[in-house]
Specification:
Layout lengths: L18 H10 L13 E2 L2 E5 L7 H17 L6 E5 L5 H14 L4 E4 L7 H12 L8 E5 L8 E7 L8 H17 L9 H5 L4 E4 L1 H7 L7 H7 L3 E4 L8 H9 L3 E3 L30 H4 L7 E5 L6 E5 L3 E2 L2 H15 L8 E5 L5 H9 L3 E4 L7 H6 L2 E6 L3 E4 L14 H14 L3 H12 L3 E8 L2 H8 L10 E2 L2 E2 L2 E5 L6 E8 L3 E7 L5 E8 L3 H20 L1
Parallel strand pairs: 3-4, 3-5, 4-7, 8-9, 8-10, 13-14, 13-15
Antiparallel strand pairs: 1-2, 2-6, 5-6, 10-11, 11-12, 15-16, 17-23, 18-19, 20-21, 21-22, 22-23
Helix pairs in contact: 2-3, 2-5, 4-7, 7-9, 8-14, 11-12, 11-15
Keywords: Isomerase, Magnesium, Metal-binding, Phosphoprotein
Protein name: Phosphoglucomutase (Alpha-D-glucose-1,6-bisphosphate-dependent)
Cofactor: Mg(2+)
């Protein structure tokens, strides 16, 4: 990848988004549903786009919200709908639009007290808490967020009564219905003025913040953490958890400092990501440069992305930990310190996550459940306790309560951060130090991801690649052990391919939002071996796409 000269530096004013223009475009822009880029499209995490590109406008939100109302009616979902927004500039107007439709449709909506921002895991937690023990009148939720995407973007996610990201069956139906509404004209979508919607009998207030914060000791050992008196630092990156961290510190008596509590929809306080864009990605050393610079002030520090469903862990010894490193440490420690978890509880990972996780899981005597990219694949296992911990290489994770029951079925950025502190308090070593111990035992892998341009037809070809199209027998000087186009855990299609040898692997899959494909690779030898894997992977994929 080509590194921008701005990477890791404070955002200059020239790249800041014009918020009034962005919001005006949300209301005035008229998307053309005959243009694919302007239609509703649910990717791995909801519909995303920008009003400036006519891909996230009022018409989209009217159509998606009404489609969700129709889905609820069709499936008998008649409990409350938990609605939350993050701090992106387009989230508040989209939230207002959604409420106007929900109120007109007579849906009971749970808005946050004091109109606080609401993180994604808090919505999942609220849905599951409400639905516990119920067989009817079930709740669901909407989270309005583009996650860590740049400030110009907006996003809209639906979580059904299982609390997790909606699966493909649901999102495909909502997508089709919403696009039909766009085509016929959204003027037919029922809505009432926002002021009336706020005072409607179906609009209620819910204390998301305190309900979630007070329950945290059910999932992390906060007594142990409090007794250790660790000095903790956190940067919410201007996101939806900005008011949660201070309450966590107060409620659980932790020595935790919020290093930045500013909310600004331009995100001008960020350091710029690798490509010259502002992106609130806690796994990026460029976006996290400011917190990394503070690493010696704290025993441990951490950050979350804008909707707080991803985590970043910073230690004095190692700086920002790559997500794969921390996932391996978390798995190693959790399954040793949660005696109430089922002995059959497995480890869930995506196929593009580190093979270090495989080795740690095998040593623990636990089953590995490997799935395609997308957190939706973990929902059922978290719900019934079959999966103790699940994680993605992109720094998304969730795990069970200490008693072995479900906490959330969506990614939760808070609990991996607090777990890192629990682990440090319990072992006297931070996660970076513990990871080095794992490498002495299992080897030290090197991991990377690269991108390459691909046309829509090439992306489709890659998504439908068969194992027979990979004709080579060796990768980087090693015999190919397996070629997978379906995940070993649930046999779902990868939408790409994964090739493995004894000491390395690569996976290739098309992007859901850009005309590129991504190659993930790892070597348990060295960086030269990794470079060779990446080079040959690109050659293999390019050849397969020409067939």
């Amino acid at each position: 990848m080509k590194l921008s000269p701005l990477a890791g530096h404070p955002a200059p004013s020239a790249i800041l988004v014009d918020v009034p223009h962005l919001v005006a475009a949300y209301h005035s822009g008229a998307p053309d549903p005959t243009i694919p880029a302007q239609r509703v499209a649910f990717g791995t995490s909801g519909h995303r786009g920008s009003s400036l590109d006519l891909s996230f406008n009022e018409a989209h939100i009217l159509a998606i919200t009404d489609a969700i109302c129709l889905h609820r009616a069709q499936h008998g979902i008649d409990g409350p709908l938990f609605l939350g927004i993050d701090t992106h500039a387009l989230s508040a107007p989209a939230g207002a639009t959604a409420l106007e439709v929900l109120a007109a449709r007579g849906v009971d909506v749970m808005l946050p007290e004091n109109d606080t921002y609401t993180p994604t895991p808090v919505i999942s937690h609220a849905i599951l808490t409400y639905n516990r023990g119920r067989n009817s009148g079930l709740a669901d939720g909407i989270v309005i967020t583009p996650s860590h995407n740049p400030p110009r973007d907006g996003g809209f996610k639906y979580n059904p009564p299982n609390g997790g990201p909606a699966d493909k069956t649901i999102t495909a139906w909502i997508e089709r219905q919403a696009n039909a509404l766009l085509e016929s004209g959204v003027s037919a979508v029922p809505r009432i003025p926002h002021a009336r919607a706020l005072t409607a009998a179906t609009t209620h207030r819910h204390d998301y913040l305190n309900t979630y914060v007070q329950d945290l000791d059910a999932v992390v050992d906060l007594d142990l953490l409090r007794a250790a008196k660790l000095r903790l630092g956190v940067d919410p990156l201007g996101g939806a958890g900005v008011h949660y961290w201070a309450r966590i510190a107060e409620r659980h008596q932790l020595d935790l400092t919020v290093v930045n509590d500013v909310v600004d929809p331009t995100f001008r306080f960020m350091t710029v990501d690798w490509d010259g864009q502002i992106r609130m990605d806690p796994s990026s050393p460029y976006a996290m440069a400011r917190l990394i610079g503070m690493k010696d002030r704290f025993d441990l520090s951490f950050a979350c992305d804008t909707d707080h469903d991803r985590h970043g862990i910073v230690t004095p010894s190692d700086g920002l930990l790559p997500p794969n490193h921390y996932l391996a440490v978390a798995i190693s420690q959790l399954f040793k310190t949660r005696p109430e978890w089922s002995a059959q509880a497995a480890v869930g990972k995506t196929v593009v996550s580190s093979a270090m996780i495989d080795r740690v899981t095998a040593q623990l005597g636990r089953k590995l459940y490997e799935v395609p990219v997308g957190f939706k694949w973990f929902v059922d296992g978290l719900l019934d306790g079959a999966l103790g911990f699940v994680g993605e290489e992109s720094a998304g994770a969730a795990f069970l309560r200490r008693d072995g029951s479900v906490w959330t079925t969506d990614k939760d950025g808070f609990i991996p951060c607090l777990l890192a502190a629990e682990i440090t308090a319990r072992t006297g070593q931070n996660p970076g130090e513990l990871y080095r111990g794992l490498t002495r035992e299992f080897g030290e892998p090197v991991y990377d991801r690269v991108e390459a341009a691909a046309t829509p037809s090439q992306k489709a070809a890659l998504a439908n690649l068969s194992a027979e199209q990979i004709t080579l027998t060796e990768l980087a000087g090693e015999k190919i052990a397996s070629v997978q186009t379906h995940a070993p855990g649930n046999h779902a299609a990868l939408g790409g391919v994964k090739v493995q040898t004894a000491q390395g692997w690569f996976a290739a899959r098309p992007s859901g939002t850009e005309d590129i494909y991504k190659i993930y690779a790892e070597s348990f030898r060295d960086r030269a071996h990794l470079k060779q894997i990446l080079h040959e992977a690109q050659t293999i994929v390019d050849a397969a796409l020409k067939m």
